[in-house]
Amino acid sequence: MGGARGVGWVAAGLLLGAGACYCIYRLTRRRRRGDRGLVLRPSQSAEDLTDGSYDDVLNAEQLQKLLYLLESTEDPIIIEKALITLGNNAAFSVNQAIIRELGGIPIVGNKINHSNQSIKEKALNALNNLSVNVENQIKIKVDASFLSLYDSHVAKEILLRVLTLFQNINNCLKIEGHLAVQPTFTEGSLFFLLYGEECAQKIRALVDHDDAEVKEKVVTIMPKI
To answer: Any idea where the Armadillo repeat-containing domain is (predicted)?
Structure first.
């Protein structure tokens, strides 16, 4: 009798122990999952967001980390990767507004003056995506040296991107070929530079450019200047 009772107590203890372990497993599993059953991602550093494997649309906190990284680092590889990530995210209208509100437009704009050609190109890509938002156009400040990017000796990749920037702004301001919004020609603003006679002359001169793609882009812009 005593032996049978002892075996019963041992079995009961094992069952209770197994039940407790299962409860702990379920609790731990739930903590690792979000409300919708999706596994939560660990908090990521700004550099993690630029490694090419993160393809989700960034939220405001992540964009802020990215802009801080872009402003604080001097590593050209990190700068280029950050600009690529930022440019991809600037293709979404909600992020165009967030980047503006976080003060990101001048941070990106400053990289246009970088000596590294690839960084200059990626900065223009990001600005092109940001520039399709009319409110962002007002915030873009680029100095008189910006017009030098429209010179014929500038690399094709850069020329195509600055021409696209001009085209994006015109597309936003004009409806059916007519000026829908009167741009503010504040000195130092992008409008002041792009709608000035010097810029118009530079763009017209590109009609004779050696590259067919540049010529084609200029022809599409010519009626608008």
So the answer is: 58-142
